[in-house]
């Protein structure tokens, strides 16, 4: 959080304090979604926002399931080999009062 705060031009402890300070523990959830052998028979998740302040994804080169909304359109994110996707979502958006 310190590095993110600094790169956003904030005091280094800004985001840490905004999320409750040093005494608040972090939560981690690890999910793995293997490629579906019959994707035409499945349903995906409904549109949603990630509830945390930061989501870090390591996408699979073969599974193109992540989509982001831009305006009224959904865009499929093409995975980049050996790269993480870092999503700083709703909580940080609210802290800064950003409304696209």
Automatic annotation (TrEMBL):
Source species, domain of life: Eukaryota
Residues covered by the Fe2OG dioxygenase domain: 23-100
Sample GO molecular function, one term: L-ascorbic acid binding
InterPro entries: IPNS-like_FE2OG_OXY, IPNS-like_sf, Oxoglu/Fe-dep_dioxygenase_dom, Plant_2OG-oxidoreductases
Keyword tags: Iron, Metal-binding, Vitamin C
Protein name: Fe2OG dioxygenase domain-containing protein
